[in-house]
What we know:
CATH architecture: Roll
Oligomer: single chain
Number of helices: 6
Mean pLDDT: 83
CATH topology: Hypothetical upf0131 protein ytfp
Structural class: alpha+beta
Number of domains: 1
Largest sheet: 3 strands, mixed
Distance between the termini: 19 Å
Low-confidence stretches: none
Shape: globular
CATH class: Alpha Beta
Amino acid sequence: MSGLEGYAPPAAAAKPLKPTELLASLRNALEPWTPGTPFWIFAYGSLMWNPSFSWDARHGSTIRGYHRSFRLLSRAPDLVQEQMQLIWKREMLYGSYRPKWLNCSVGDESIRALAFTVNRGCSGYTGPIPLEVMVEAIASAAGRYGPAYDYLFKTTETLKEHGIRDSRVEHLASLVRARISSTKAA
């Protein structure tokens, strides 16, 4: 699969969390939140363009010290808690992320938001990989939600729609587009 064999465990190594583990991780992440107060989620990938939950407000925001790296392989009682259970099943099934409450800058204001940061110990994490391997993988891989390049391109488009520049993601998208074009031309 696109030269990734040496960077990530085989897909067979991916084991979904047991329902009790999934629920425990959700409860643990929600513990710092006080019911009745605003609940913010920092969306930086598919949660921006395919949130699968309803929201009252959207704001462009920044979290310092984190970046998008595309090093994670996809393996196949109140409103907030109901919505979070849906998000949890989608984002946390394989323990791919470590949910963290982080400070976000929204204009001049600082808010706390739940962000899904990569779990470097999960079965899909590749660690550092050469750019050409990443480009080939994203250009050719597909999973249960479609081609990997769709995720990258939709993320890039949504960032632009919100006035957010991420030069690394934009560069990666241009390389993947070029790779797809060269494959079609061949």
